[in-house]
Amino acid sequence: MSFEINGKPFAQEPRAGQCLRTFLRELGHFGVKKGCDAGDCGACTVLLDGEPVHSCLIPAFRAEGRAITTIEGLGGDHGAHPMQQAFLDAQGFQCGFCTAGMILTCASLNQAQRTDLGAALKGNICRCTGYRSIEDALLGKTNVEASVEPGAAFGRSLPAPAGPDIVRGNARYTFDTTIDGLLHVKLVRSPHAHARIVAIDKSEALKVPGVHAVLTHEDAPSMLISTARHEMDWMDPEDTRVLDDVVRFIGQRVAAIVAESEAAAEEACRRLKLDYEVLPALIDPEQAMAPGAPVIHPDRTTANRIADAQRNLAAETHGEFGDVAAALATSAVTYEAIFHSHRVQHAALETHGGLAWLDASGVLNVRTSTQVPFLTRRALSDIFKLPPDKVRVFCERVGGGFGGKQEMFVEDILALAALKTGRPVKLELTREEQFIATSTRHPMRVHIKAGADADGKLTALQLDVLSNTGAYGNHAGPVMFHSLSESIAVYNCPNKRVDGYAVYTNTVPAGAFRGYGLPQTLIAIEAAIDELGQQLGIDPYEMRRRNIVRDGDPMLSPPPSELHDVLYGSYGLDQCLDLVERAMQADGPQPDLSPDWLLGDGVALTMIDTAPPAGHLADATIALREDGGFDLTVGTAEFGNGTSTVHRQIAATTLATTVDRIRLRQSDTAHGGHDTGAYGSAGMFVAGKATHAASMQLATELKAAAAGAWLCDVGSCVLEDNAVVSGVRRMPFAELVKLARERGQPFAGSGNSGGTPRSVGFNVQGLRIAVNKATGELRVLRSVHAADAGIVANPMQCRGQVEGGVAQALGAALYEEMVIDATGRVTNPKFRDYHLPSFADVPRTDVFFAETSDTIGPLGAKSMSESPYNPVAAALGNAIANATGIRFTAPPFKPDRLFPALHAKFGD
Amino acid sequence: MDLNTITTVARPQTRTQLPAWTAGDAWLAGGTWLFSEPQVHLKRLIDLTDLKWPALTITDNHLSIAATCTVAQLDGLACPSDWLAAPLINQCCRAFLASFKIWKTATVGGNLCMSLPAGPMISLTAALGGVCTIWKAGGGEQRIPVVDFVTGNQRNRLTPGDLLRQIDIPIAALKRRTAYRQISLAPVGRSAALLIGSLDADGTLTLTVTASTARPIQLSFRRAPEASVLRDAIVQQITDDLYHTDIHGQPLWRKHMTLRLAEEVRRELLEAMPS
User: Which Gene3D superfamilies did the record assign (chain B) (predicted)?
Assistant: First the structure.
């Protein structure tokens, strides 16, 4: 057979059932990505004879004799294709994993399709951007600032350094590498929600040609672990194993097969004989603490950091300030309701997975799709009893995270397989495995009671939370605590009470997810604020103004915390409310809608601590390079959060240079130092501080060296335009390199950050919507978001983070829903049944920033990636209530779920 | 995705070359569904490409759509100006959950054989009175109207080894005035109800209900019904158990949307009637 790929002939023969996607990747065209492998997401789009197709659906043999163009070949010999340049100019990407497919699709649209992008792009999912910047690329808009003078990078809209590689398909994600002699790992997964493995017969599986190892609990370390990764291990219960002899959810891994090919590994998976003793399963979280309920972790105790294993209680909390019951009894108005937030998935386009190998010096290398390389190294070192310097964990570019990669779902298996076989191994999860066997958001039932006096001042706030952590307690406690923290601390109220329970069930585990519990409680609290205000005739903005904390007010949520390191480094909540209210009132085009459509406005606010609690560490080093530029080394990872851009901006600003002279190395334990990880928006607020400190130290060194050479007072030296300057004297950095050479030691600085004290950030979301009372359809007519991010490090990127957060939250509030049946099975583990927002689903959001400067964050900045997600579902619930007069309490607010109540109220 | 259990691909050029059907065989038309899910029970694909069936053939009486005609080919058909129903073709193509990129590969026949309630080619060909021609596994042919071909969610009249050859649409049906309505849970989501009404020269109004029901259901009225007559007919003939339920729409909602869209279809067709 002969294939023409990007103008070059190939004579390789595809396998009979091979799809074009994997064939192209095997031939080295790594720009062809796998998002779903099922034709739904478009990440694998290539051109076949000039026409865009999803290469995962094309039998490879059918491409014989045809011309295939991948992203790498789109620009031809003339550099970038205009669409690639357009995506660079507009920065129409974040993690960049969808970008190749998006560009190839956009480049092939005709004029008619360009006038209906919702339809034209329904086969291309971007999980990060919210599509506005993609539309900008199609419209030819330039969002990046052209050039910035030395020392002025911070606060400017500079492009992501990886951009040119991303648009050309050259950015290397987890699997975009070739390793000779690679073996493939496939996992056998439990068909039972709860069962004990009583017998394993490997013989048939081992007979499959090409199979090297069949690994089960008999082969795995017995150590109890959590998949969750935190700086402090005590935050998560140790309740699982690399491979366990008891399985507690459908989809839990039972065995790992290592083979020459995925096909052989899959065949061996089918032939592995397993006998299970099926155990009673607990699916309904409401039943978890009931007497007689099946106990999921009967052998565990508080020594394993499980609150009460016999009651299926992973974690619990109780606390009260004042006397809520008494206050409610005497309040002018009260509100009580129960809200249910559902199970949603991160759906990062790059699935979990990685590669592992032992190098010549005996170091176990793990290249993986992670937000936490350093914590994963620590876990692997603990589990496999290897010295930390014998384990290296790293990532290059990661295709989206959203919290889902603050876990260890594959690295332990990879390590086990590499250590057992001595061979390089690869494990790449399928999209279905992402759904059934990684983690989800915590579904929560939130029972709220609230009261206010006649002036609209809150008198009482009580929350009772039941959080479903699934089969394992990864993040169970921290998410539950977080859900009951800033959400109520943002309101002044003399009487507050919380009761929280995180319960085990025999379902896919919940874990870290953007928002970390806050969206699930906010939907109840923000509803209560509106409902109380409505009873009193106080509008939602005014009701909030009367109750929000002001700069300096204590931020209180019971029970009392040991941590007292959250401060008002800055305060912009008042501004955010004003910005949203003003924008919502601004004139706009009147929608042309039939009388069936009911209009309503909604608003919701959120506060968030700017870093995770109890320790979040980051080291950074920076050194003057031979060419007068700088090498900056940080531990934090890049997965579309934009920190790579911002770290360079911080360093360039501090060192009076331009970002192009800062070369960034990141997210590799081999570089030394430590970094807790990129979660809780810490990549900027915590790691950015480390970069700032390192750069400051280096700046001091450079000034001291110049002062020494000039024999002048170091206090007279400043950095200016790539040089040290004192009066009329000027020593360019390139000259300082010579000094370094003479003294035999390069100029370098190092810095670290302990993630404390922490500040607070704020977000306010406003929505105007229309609900069709006859069909339940919902349209967003206006979306306004104000964020208090301190000094905004990169307005273009920060806007993108806000838009992306709003889009992801709208997806969860309107469409996305993981359904688990009575047996515990996920019934819709694919994108065509789990509707991610596409271009047509996401409204444009007007983004505003409060004008504040933080005294704690780096150069006045605060974190802003996670929190824009948080108030959206709450604002939507309030808008629907405003439009319909009905308080819906259980998202997603899909037409078929809104319909029964609308029909009951409004009839046909 | 890779179908790793496939060991061979047969590529017959004529009907006589079709291999004897055995367990583990699958017809490969576009392959857009086949390659979208694991198919571990399959060993051999029988590729229909080399049969080289003409995608679209117009005769005096019929538009013949080969089972292997792609959605894009059908969408691109230049229809004669007296085919009043022509807009239906693009409307139904757009009702695909899948992108236009998939239309280039996905086939009309594949959509029928998948027999999903939301299959828009089922809606189209059923509404236009299409008749399937099936090459029976043991030889011979069978003709079945599309409305009878699909019998439920992912169920149809094919038995193992049967091959859908083509769908014939009467030209007369293509000359009818039609009205189209569709709704889904998301703006470009999977159809939860897709209704097509058509008006015959003799005044017969035919309503084809798809997507909301597990199989296509057709209601015919000798002359355009009053709203209440239409509504009663739907309530009577489409019993609650016929409404499909899945993540793309709860049955109660699908039922009400069916009633609502049916009335819109009726009104649109009535307005188009010469008074």
Answer: 3.30.465.10
